[in-house]
Amino acid sequence: MTPDLISKHIYVKDYPQHLLEGVFSCKFNDIIYCRFKIPLREGKFAYMEQALSGTSESHIVIADRHRLLSAWRNNPNSIVPELSRGDESAWRRDRKFHEAEKGFSHSAGNPVPLADPHCRFILERGLPVPALSFTNGITRTIWLLANGANRFPVHADNHRSAQLLQRSIGYRPACPLAVQALYFQYASAVLPRHLRYKAEPKQH
Fold it and tell me: What is the mean pLDDT of residues 55-65?
């Protein structure tokens, strides 16, 4: 989101291990976002964002580079085996790599959405191993890998999916973040006053 579209922004200090940098609101609607700052090689950074909602079931999982690659390579039905089993040179040769290059080039001014991976466990030599696939975001993922990211956030549809992703590819010191919990924790600080009632958790 470009700076002229941001109504208010706060920095977040509570979740440094999750790469969460801040939460901000859009000037023209009541949507708020959290922004992630992802270290790359040579002291550079990439920026990604996730919309927050008080009704969302989504979670955010911080993926570990090596665990993600291992689980992706375990997938016997990968639609892009040249990428799941490839290296940096293979990733950079991908025909869509330039699209991610352009998307990430906007930096903090217009962060990139999170990828949507999914994980299941398959048997290999009689033992369960994680096998990773993607609904979308392969190109974003290989761009991060090619540029040296060791951990980065990914999107999970619900709590169960987040648990599977954490167990299989998650950065071990972190834990899944509930989008709804982040919304209720920070929305009242960034939403315009007349919209802050939406940031109050419903009482049951």
Answer: 97
